[in-house]
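Exam revision sheet. Question 4 asks you to relate a sequence to its structure. Input first:
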Amino acid sequence: MPETLTEQGVRILRSGALAGIPHGFLGREGGVSRGLVEGLNVGLGAGDDPAAVAENRRRTAAAVLPGAKLVTCYQVHSADAVVVDEPWSEDARPRADALVTARMGMLLAVVTADCAPVLLADREAGVIAAAHAGWRGAHGGVLEATVVAMEGLGADRSRIAAAIGPAIAQPSYEVDAAFRENFTEADEDLFAEGRTGHWQFDLEGYAARRLEGAGVGRIDRLGVDTYAAPQRYFSYRRSTHQQEPTYGRQFSLIGLI
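Answer key, structure tokens:
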């Protein structure tokens, strides 16, 4: 998978499925935050210095699409996708988990720390999207809602390419019986047996399955485990296991030029 490193040390992971479209999956390298969220933390709720978060966000945007208007939402693990016509202030962010636009100069971003970031594009229609797909949002239909919103702007789902970025991988994602009960027999193959009463869940595989079911034409699974790479990525579950009081978040971005 294509990967570049900026002069400031920001590492950008890209998908071949989105080649030619400004985009990138970023981790924690190349930022100015310190302490438990050392590196390129872009999360506003991590207890970080706001000035450091602002600088990290500036660096990420400049690394992917210089001069673009960065747009984020207030993520709540919902199935809601919103269309972006104009950028809004941080205070006016809508509560949603996917952003869709056909406007040039926009840079859509979602924050994650184990959930699956999904970047989508229909090149021919000039429509892009960024979605935050934790298990709850994916189960609720956020990816399908994203595709529908893209179609509303002229996209064709059969032309859409989607890339699933760094997320917690199956070997790192232990779940219990109560979690498993949220799923049907059709998803049994996404659960590998673990210790007694527990299973290992394939979040990336589940996101890919939902995209396939929505008729997305091309799906690229990057297969990067956030939990297992502490020097490269922030991870909510890893921080929880280490009994840390906070955790950083990383950006995944896509823009139009």
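Marking note for examiners. The chain has six helices and 15 strands.
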